[in-house]
User: Fold this.
Amino acid sequence: MNSGEALKNKIEKVRARLKAFRHPVSHAEVVAAGYTEKGFTRLLEETLEEINKPQKLSKKLHADIRKFLVELTEYDILPSPSAWPRKYFTEKAYYRDWEDPKQRFIYNALNSLYKTEGYEKGFEDPRVDHVREEVDRKFAEFYSIHTAVGWDCDGEEYDVNEKALELGRLLIRLFYVEGLATELLEAWRTYEEFVYLSKSYYRDHFLHLIYDFFMGCKLLCSFTDRIHKNLEYYTDNPMPIDEFRVRLMRSWLAASLFHDIGYAAEALSEFRKKLQDQFFFKIPGFDLSELKLNESDYLKDEINDFLTLLSFVLDEDEFSFNFGQVEKYRRRYPDRLMYGAANALFTDRFKDMDHGIMSALFLLLSLKIDIHEFTMYEGIGKKESNERHKKYRRMRNDLLEDIVVGAFAISIHNIRINAFEGLTIDFRTHPITFILMLCDDLHEWDRQSDWRSKPEVFKAVYGFEVLKTISGNPEKLFDEDDHSFFHHLKTKVTALTIKQENELKRLVPSIKAIIYKEKTDSFKLKRSIEKFIALQTVDATVRNILDALCLILAEDVITLAYVGGDEKKRGDSGDRVMSFWKALDKLFYKNLSNGPSICIFHGYDEESVRVFFTAEYDPALKCYRVNKELQPIKKKGDIE
Assistant:
């Protein structure tokens, strides 16, 4: 019996025992019923140990594991259904022993890091075996699935936020240095709960940081080459791919892991308002004065430089700016006018202690000091020490530019929500900012709106891919391999009836005929297929699949599939499915430009998954086109 069959048998044994349990199972019931003595707890532990192993499993067994974990959360045996996404995104962004790691962004970045530092075999060099072991261990500790309190009486308490911090700290140490920035991240991890006290509505933000990081790494797996080409286009200065991967990782690490730490500053005004409204207004004659941060006089120049850099990157791009150009740029006309407008925007948000601006400032102040460690050198002989000193001096500018790119992305991500909804970010010129804004909105499946009760919203993410455009070879549109978008759609959408499947099969030959006729002109081909679909009288679900299929004729398609929510509570104040759709609509329709297409799938259970959201950039309209027909429709009796 192989490991997959053994795991399947263990899962079935656990399921058989679950039938005797009440729903959910409380800690008191675990103790009273003596599940430990009866052997169930050990069976459960053995099953989870098997699931936690890095082993090759069939797609069918992967799907069964996902359903099994959902069942355990419904009995309160697992503390959170986010257990599976942790492992899922680790696999997608890092690597598994049995898979080719070449398409994993984190692995590639680590490989490039050690190559640029003189290790001939990169991350596989025998001299860095101990580093690889440490990285593997930190990833495994983060994604390993643990039972809830009460089930694991003898084991150590498992804190996924602490494991996320340790993983983040390790990556920062490898790509930057473990200094003030990691202390800042650790302080945010420790004191985040105070922010919950100050805000009436606040979701988890520490674990959210690591999820955004993983999602962005998965996107960068597919988009690194495109971003690399854009760098050469905008700067006319090609950069070796290994150096580029390292710098891209540095910017993304800074942007994703630090983009919410400024909530501590923004929360001051909320905290004052909450105390005033809930306590001091009961006391005649008393009013709580404003709580605010006061920067020291010696920081004014630093803050002005900070705002200057952000304004410069906004008006230019994430590639072509360098510190030597900033002063010259400010003196040029008409660039000076554009810079002034950008500077006013950032200055206003800084005065209001926007958490994005404050996060960027806190990060920049910390990492700029940490960079001192990169300029240190060991002197054995005078000649060798001078050469090493020059090398690290050259790195300083590059490191600062990478940090500024991350800081810019951080500063923008909240501005578009609270102040300037029309602020547009182009994927070509600001890829890190584009990806941060996208990941920040996509991460909704396990966000917690109440840190104590922890209501569960989305049960599982079970598909996150970037499928490449087939322009140049449109006959691949209906291929049945794993890389075909049509195959991907059919695999993910499980809500089709027999009648709908027959309708789809009936239309495929006609679309293939159009492809054969127009295959030399991708624009005509796309329009011809769209016109054909519009003329057909077909079920709405079938039409949505066909419309989604057209996305890949023009652009790469980001796809995300998730299952969960509560259909009985559908609506903005229910399971957030409606508000999630609206957030994506606003993000793509108003804020993002000239980037990849996107196709989101959703179902309240695994048998009802359907196309949920699509958006495609239209170069003629110069904006994204969103399929409004996919917007969820509330039924009578839905909670408002």
Remarks:
- Confidence is low (pLDDT under 50) at residues 377-381, 450-457.
- Strands lie at 425-426, 458-467, 557-564, 592-593, 597-603, 610-618, 623-626.
